[in-house]
């Protein structure tokens, strides 16, 4: 009987030690995350403080484009990235044969149409120039927003893969100028209007809710399900303990309050 009791106590002690060891297994870890400058890197700055309290170091590598963060993740140069929405990730994997997966939905940034040389949609003249992002899913997103304002009409079924070639009606003969997303705010003064990605608008000091002439329907399930910005890792690393701690930090009340207070509706928490 004594022998059985000793064995049970030994097992219980071992289980306790194992559990404690698991809880502290990420202490001393370093996570390297690629991110757009705004708002992603700023949001990660708050998560960094939370992780530091758990003994985890978060290093943020800032990128100014939408290609390198995924390539760096695929090749193992970073542990995760946080800059893209669901549709962009899916298209990137399809086009490049990469193996990147979503591990958490974090926030949504409303897409907006911003004034350049022309200050209102009603003032748009025949042949006016409107710039849009030239990367697959974001170009379609921009064109759908222009369609929602009655400025153009897209071919039926074009959907999330729409390009300028799918425009079937253009009553004002608008010139749709495709530009790299990062160039949209820089060239805003040279065009009549621009449809700008949320992160680049924020970086330029623009807020979709107060500065845009028109924005997406942020309450639409189509928008939420496809354009929520996500934390991503290389396939196979989804359950990494340090990544799980990063997810907890990003989905904390501290991060949510930061988003609401700093961006005032230009960044919408999705948790």
Helices and strands in order, then pairings?
Elements: H1 2-23, E1 30-36, H2 37-52, E2 57-63, H3 68-74, E3 80-85, H4 86-96, E4 100-108, E5 112-115, E6 129-133, H5 136-148, E7 153-154, E8 167-169, E9 175-179, E10 193-196, H6 198-203, H7 208-211, E11 214-215, H8 221-227, E12 228-234, H9 241-250, H10 253-263, E13 268-269
Parallel strand pairs: 1-2, 1-3, 6-9, 6-10
Antiparallel strand pairs: 3-12, 4-12, 4-13, 5-10, 5-11, 7-8
Task: Give a written overview of the molecule.
- This protein has 271 residues and is an alpha/beta fold.
- The protein has 2 domains: 2-109 and 225-269, D-Maltodextrin-Binding Protein, domain 2 (3-Layer(aba) Sandwich); 112-215, 3-Layer(aba) Sandwich (D-Maltodextrin-Binding Protein, domain 2), CATH 3.40.190.
- 39% of the residues lie in helices and 23% in strands.
- It has 10 helices and 13 strands.
- The protein has helices spanning 2-23, 37-52, 68-74, 86-96, 136-148, 198-203, 208-211, 221-227, 241-250, 253-263; strands spanning 30-36, 57-63, 80-85, 100-108, 112-115, 129-133, 153-154, 167-169, 175-179, 193-196, 214-215, 228-234, 268-269.
- The strands form 3 sheets. Strands 2-1-3-12-4-13 form a 6-stranded mixed beta sheet, with helices on both faces.
- Helix 2 packs across helix 9.
- The longest helix is centred in the N-terminal third of the chain and has 22 residues, at 2-23.
